[in-house]
Amino acid sequence: MLQDISAFTQTQNAGQRPLQVAIIVPTFNEADNIAPLMARLSAVLTDFQWEVIFVDDNSPDHTADLVRQFALTHPHIRIVHRVGRRGLSSAVIEGMLATPAPILAVIDGDMQHDEALLPDLIRAVADGQAEIAVGTRYAAGGGTQGWDATRLRLSRAATRLGQLALRVPLSDPMSGFFALSRDTLGAALPRLSGIGFKILLNIVASLPQAPRVAEFPYQFRNRIAGESKADSQIALEYLTLLADKTLGRVLPVRLLSFLIVGGLGVGVHLAVLGLCLMLGISFFDGQWAAVATAIAFNFFLNNSLTYRDRRLRGWRMWRGLASFYAVSALGAVANIGIGNWVHDMDRSWWLAALAGIVVGAVWNFAASSFLTWRK
User: Fold this and answer.
1) C-alpha separations of 92 from 54, 61, 294 in Å
2) Does 242 fall in a domain?
3) CA nearest neighbour of 229 among 198, 270, 250
4) Last residue of a domain, one of 229, 261, 278
5) Per-residue confidence at 50, pLDDT binned at 50, 70, 90?
6) Which residues form the domain of 145?
7) What are the tens digits of pLDDT across the range 282-308?
8) Cα–Cα–Cα angle for 287, 289, 291, nearest 5°?
9) Cβ contact 33:111 at 8 Å
10) What is the pLDDT, as a whole number, of residue 373?
11) What stretch of H or E contains 316?
């Protein structure tokens, strides 16, 4: 079979250089940047046999349609059009898996990365100088244009957190501008997650061994067209990614988030119960009100945070709330039942209570993942 492939390749590609590198460009509402980015890539990649793969998350501004128009007359331009999925990390992973190129480079579609650096990144990997070559804003000679003090401080703090989570000295672990070999991607794939927007950190933290890294400074440019995707949700996803690559080896991050939300729900329960008692409401009625409020609080917070990728909206959200009440009711029964069983074995009251809480929490997580937020 390999001989057949070789013979076909020789026949079809006589005189052509083999594909050397694929440039992966994740996009969302970047229609105004496609033409100028293509012109700049074409100008700097003349020494390579290359293709560019745009991975678009169904942009409302029809970015994918514009790329298709270019691809009709430029075979080295390709589009992966995703519907019903969002996220930069998962987009980059899908783009990398959609090409046979031995070297993979990533650049944003917003024109803020300096495409003139791409040849240096590619050659560093091709020549064996590094397994990953990174464009960095924070090494000598690098920098950011027009950032205010607050944005710079936040970026530096996030960078420091990323460095603490890695075994590799990277000046800019949050960089989205880098190149790597396909072998390096293959080594990281078993542990890669699609969480968040920081794919470089994701890849480096997923490798079984620390990779050889080369860094190249560049000036991060201001955006000309389109809108920034940075918001508080991206910051949350970044923290989730860090947790996944550190604590996630011991405790699944989704379960950890579910338990944290449950802990906050306990505080809500006590606050509502205390308020009811202050208003003269009986303890029994106050308990019902507190339980109902805490369950609703847990549902809406989990819907926004723990299960953001499966978030329920509209009518499905209210059906989800009803199922979460049912799941939580059974969880309470399990909590009480296991607690009483442990207590009847002449164990300490606190051990019995803890056993009930653990069983109830695990039940709530497993059942709600399957029933309330099932894929």
Assistant:
1) 9, 20, 38
2) no
3) 198
4) 229
5) very high
6) 2-229
7) 777 777 788 888 889 989 998 887 887
8) 65
9) yes
10) 84
11) helix 314-344
